[in-house]
Amino acid sequence: MSVAPAGVAPATFELKSANLPLVSLLLKSADLQALAEELKTRFGDIPDFFDHDPLVVDLTPLPPDAQVDFPALQRLLRQHRVVPVAVRGGSETLAAAARDSGLAQATEAVPLAVRPRDEPAPAPVAAPAPAGALIVDKPLRSGQQVYARGRDLVVMSIVNAGAEVIADGSIHVYAPLRGKAIAGARGDAAARIVSLALEPELVSIAGVYRTSDVPLPPEVLGKPTQVRLAGGAEGKLVMAPLNTA
Question: Taking every annotated instance into account, which residue ranges of this chain make up the domain Septum formation inhibitor MinC C-terminal (predicted)?
Fold first, then answer.
């Protein structure tokens, strides 16, 4: 084994430990066709939800005899703009197959989980303050969608029924909100939704949502309202009138 002489440091590189945020995909089934359909359902209408984020595939839920086509899995995930770099958990057979496909074995990573909307999330990790808010001045018609990645969203005009506003931070609509509003899209349970006239088809914060199937209380319906998440990511949405006096 070659050993570098004492006191001589490489001039072209340094090796340091790194603590990086990673997205984690908790793989519950080896059926990639079903996975493709569910990914399309969840993220197909938000094509820029991911931005080539590094991803760890968590194999823990799979049975020991499961077989995963890792090359096909990697191609599928890259279609949704995530870059699989490692796996964690699972059987030795699965780990070996993952290594053969070029994936590393992660043991100490603490990733950010990707989960269905109806599944409870772990306690959120404090995130850095978002960049300056994305401001939209024009009315949003049915079928239009705006996504404020990594920041708050401010809409100065009406969000019509059939339109959708999404933000990783909070959403402020200084007009009627009649479409869908999804705040804390990446799990920020401290995000808020504020509207001067709350009449939404759906409001959601950190995956906890409420649809128009459940009528809003008369004290907030069509009125200035703030929506927040009480009890963290496993809590419930609380709607309170705004004092605009």
Answer: 135-229
Task: Quickly state the pLDDT bin for 26 (edges 50, 70, 90).
Answer: confident
pLDDT at 175 over 90: yes
**For the chain, the helix, strand and coil percentages under 3-state DSSP, each to the nearest 5:** 15, 35, 55
| Distance, CA of 228 to CA of 204 (rounded, Å) | 9
Question: For residue 116, what are its two tokens?
Answer: 């269905």
Helical packing angle, 92-100 and 70-79, nearest 10°: 60
Q: Which amino acid is at 53?
A: D
Q: In sequence order, which residues have a C-beta less than 8 Å from that of residue 189 and are 6 or more positions away? A: 121, 124, 205, 206, 229, 232, 233, 235
